[in-house]
Write a structure and sequence with these properties.
This protein has 342 residues and is α+β, with helices and mostly antiparallel strands. The protein folds into 2 domains: 3-104, Phosphorylase Kinase, domain 1; 111-341, Aminoglycoside 3'-phosphotransferase, Chain: A, domain 2 (Alpha-Beta Complex). 53% of the residues lie in helices and 18% in strands. It contains 13 helices and 13 strands. The chain has a 7-stranded mixed sheet. A two-stranded antiparallel sheet has the order 5-6. A two-stranded antiparallel sheet has the order 10-13. β7 and β8 (85-88) form a beta hairpin. It is globular, with a radius of gyration of 21 Å.
């Protein structure tokens, strides 16, 4: 599906009210529904290059997201070409693609907008925590082999954009990346046993994989949507890694009180998730890792960005790099305290 084809789509005879684009999909909005169409792209981490692949991952997206958002994920529907137009949900014409059909939600009820306006309540945070607890208790437990080198390499991939960070922000921020990479290697080496034990304790589960405030609607009960469908590996993670993404997302914009309340509620209802003394520092390390990922995404967004978008990405990049520095210092402090206590 190309941009020109998107322009030719008709939904119940009308063009979409609006549409949005990401690097792997288009989302079209009608009055009542949203339709997500996968681009025919292939990367190292996903393959949407054929019609069969796109149909398979549309089905996966529907099935997986019904775990947490059954009320908005409705069906996988065909797109057919008839003359000059592409018809959504039509029985007429040649099949050209598929879309995931969803109930359209109010954009102003997305959690990140509500956070910016100071409208997220403690009760809503508790409700999100309770929903994630139940989800984690019910989802599939996985026991992959622990690979410390792969974990190091994953974190250290941020080194690929260190030159760009130095050019955009200067030596201080580039050195911050180097320091975090060195610390990460040391942390993983010294905590290999504890990280591997979390696998044996059943804490690696097939989760959501992309848990942050942009993927939550707060309209009555919380609706958590848009999980990772294109890679089982990306969503099969430590529950603390999943929680760390959400908490880091809150803390980067100074909602630490909400982050703390979320974790307090989660741990009270699923104490096995943090039953060992080492679990707290592992949780903090995962927050460092998730800040790393968001910093890298914003650095990559700078390539080819327009001026306004580029300025926004630079601001976001600085925020995540400084948060990485904060988490690294906290972990270093914890390690020094533990060393003195031994």
């Amino acid at each position: 599906m190309t941009e020109s084809q998107i322009q030719a789509i008709r939904i119940s005879g009308e063009p979409p009210e609006q549409w949005k684009e990401t690097h792997i999909s288009y989302v079209l909005l009608s009055h009542m529904h949203a339709y997500k169409i996968k681009k025919p792209v292939k990367f190292s981490f996903l393959d949407f290059s054929t019609l069969a692949q796109r149909k398979y991952y549309c089905d996966q997206e529907l099935t997986l997201n019904k775990r947490l958002a059954a009320e908005i994920y409705l069906a996988v529907v065909p797109i057919r070409q008839l003359g000059a137009y592409l018809l959504m949900e039509s029985d007429d014409g040649k099949l050209v693609d598929y879309a995931v059909k969803m109930k359209r939600m109010r954009g102003d009820r997305q959690m990140h907008h509500l956070l910016a306006d100071g409208l997220v309540t403690k009760n809503q945070i508790i409700s999100i925590a309770e929903k994630i607890v139940q989800f984690h208790k019910e989802t599939i437990i996985c026991k992959p082999l622990f690979d410390s080198q792969s974990m190091m390499d994953d974190f250290n991939d941020i080194g690929s954009i260190k030159k760009s960070i130095r050019q955009q922000l200067g030596d201080r921020y580039a050195n911050l990346v180097s320091d975090a990479m060195q610390f990460s290697d040391e942390f993983i080496r010294s905590n290999r046993y504890h990280l591997a034990q979390r696998i044996e304790r059943g804490m690696i589960r097939e989760g959501h994989g992309d848990l942050h405030s942009r993927n939550i609607f707060l309209d009555g009960k919380p609706i958590i949507f848009d999980c990772i469908e294109f890679s089982k590996d990306f969503r099969t993670i430590d529950v603390l890694d999943e929680l760390a993404f959400f908490c880091m997302d809150l803390e980067v914009d100074h909602h630490t009180e909400l982050s703390d309340l979320f974790m307090k509620t989660y741990i009270e209802q699923f104490p096995q998730s943090t039953s060992q003394p080492s679990d707290q520092k592992i949780f903090l390390y995962y927050k460092l890792y998730r800040a790393n990922v968001r910093a890298k995404v914003n650095a990559l967004n700078l390539k080819g960005a327009k001026m306004a978008t580029g300025k926004e990405s630079i601001t976001e990049l600085k925020k995540y790099l400084l948060l990485m520095e904060q988490y690294t210092k906290q972990l270093e402090g914890d390690l020094k305290i533990n060393s003195r206590d031994q």
